[in-house]
Amino acid sequence: MATRLSTLFLRTLREDPADAELPGHKLLVRAGYIRRAAPGVYSWLPLGLRVLRKVEQIVREEMDAIGGQELSFPALLPSEPYEATGRWTEYGDNLFRLQDRKGVDMLLGPTHEEMFTLAVKDMYSSYKELPLTLYQIQTKYRDEARPRAGLLRGREFVMKDSYSFDVDDAGLEAAYQRHREAYVRIFDRLGFDYVIVYADSGAMGGSASEEFLAVSPVGEDTFVRCEASGYAANVEAVVVPQAPPVDPAVVGATPPAHVEDTPDSPTIETLVDRANELHPRADGRAWTAADTLKNVVVLLTHPDGRTEPLAIGLPGDREVDAKRLEAQVAPAEWAPFGDADFAAYPMLVKGYIGPRMLGSDSPSTIRYLLDPAVAEGSAWVTGADEHGKHVFDLVLGRDFTADGTIQAAEIREGDPSPDGAGPLTLARGIEMGHIFQLGRKYAEALDLKVLDENGKLVTVTMGSYGVGVSRAVAAVAEATHDDLGLCWPRALAPADVHVVATGKDHGIFAHAEGLVAELEAAGLSVVYDDRVKVSPGVKFKDAELLGVPTIVVVGKGLEQGTVEIKDRATGERREVAVDAAVAEVVTEIRG
Known about the structure:
The protein is an alpha+beta fold. Strands 4, 8, 9, 10, 11, 12, 13, 22 and 25 form a 9-stranded mixed beta sheet that branches. A 6-stranded mixed beta sheet has the order 1-27-26-28-29-30, sandwiched between helices. A hairpin with a 5-residue loop joins strand 23 and strand 24 (457-459). Helix 1 (23-30) packs across helix 12 and helix 2 (46-65) packs antiparallel against helix 6. The longest helix has 22 residues, at 169-190. The radius of gyration is 30 Å and the shape is globular. The chain starts with a strand and ends with a helix. The relative contact order is 0.14.
């Protein structure tokens, strides 16, 4: 039955909602697809729910095609399984926690690895019952500190999560590849530009990990790619190669480290200025930020509440990348070292911190990690742990050491690709899917074992595979909208065709009713603007705002025996004879 705008639960808005930031988010609200209920929480209105269900169906079809079996776990979960895996603590404030009337700890599920694992443990005991793939499409909950961008980063969201269970690593690899191929088909059908990148596994754990990112200038994720080789990675997952050691002859020719006055130079910029002014290089080249070693101290807070400082040494022309650092220290969280922290470590002189006061064996005992660009034997200008003083010609390995390395420095456009094939380019994207080879982390924690072919108990190995279903609606809206409104691809549109009856003549509405009936008889879904007392201008604006791919206008052209067919995406219009309209529309939609 046609969806009639005269009775549809819909109110379009002419003004952007005050709380919406991104264009697609604004349009989803204005077009009456979603409605904000609370920060990061949205109601799905009838048209929006249709689009969401179409995304779900595409995902469901491709999961079923690789042998996945659908089930559904509750969103309200007991705490014990999450305590057993450590995630009750590791999730920290992102977990919605509650207690029932008896004081029993419970949670709203952020992901369901534990529940899937326990279900298989309860029901399967033999290798003969594997491999197995289970999935669900269900609402998840995360207490985001700063929900933003509408459906892209909410506190409640719909996700497809699937899990594979295999008796050995070869089975896991095969399951991973099946899911990877299914995801390619899913995102091809959803109709937006995407890229597959190496990714960090984060709190999920595991080894192999890839993300499917919708390429978008409004995306929160930064990724890199090398056009020469096809290498692509989330910026958190880029592994910068360790710089090779400096030639021993060069190290031998480097003067002994020496402390020099550098008054009023607590920043890299002021240090470079003072060094060039007061201590010019012997070779005549000017000092640059790349010659300096910046030492950044942060405070880590572990899930159990324990805190510890961490020092990071990196070239002065680079900044610490917040997301890369976050990935490196997870599940701990980090924060900048504050005044109170410096007061607790009086040997650290803010703005003049040097390696002498850093490291497990130093007076501060603060763990000290270096960026891989800092090569063994390289000489640096860095803090001397005194106000207004820096040390020159300080050589790694000769004059100072560190406790290890860390991949936390920013990645820049033009940096060499880790595979050595060429320069990197940077772009932004929206995470739409993430696949992991989890391995045995959860199976070991929850004692999921089966008997192998020799009758020996072995731990099952698992894979985890997620798709952001509600996020896909937002990502498509961001990718396909124009200045006039939403512009859905056919696979996701809430209807095949939008019929607009314009004018006050009852004959126009009678012709439109007949056209709608014929379109439905041809198997098409129809949105019909049958509102009598609404002006043609308002109807046209609403049609463009709602974004159904094909718009048919029944109006004054009837006097010449024609109706107008408009392509919403291209704006192309054409007049066709009334008796040929249905065939024309069917051909346009089905090809």
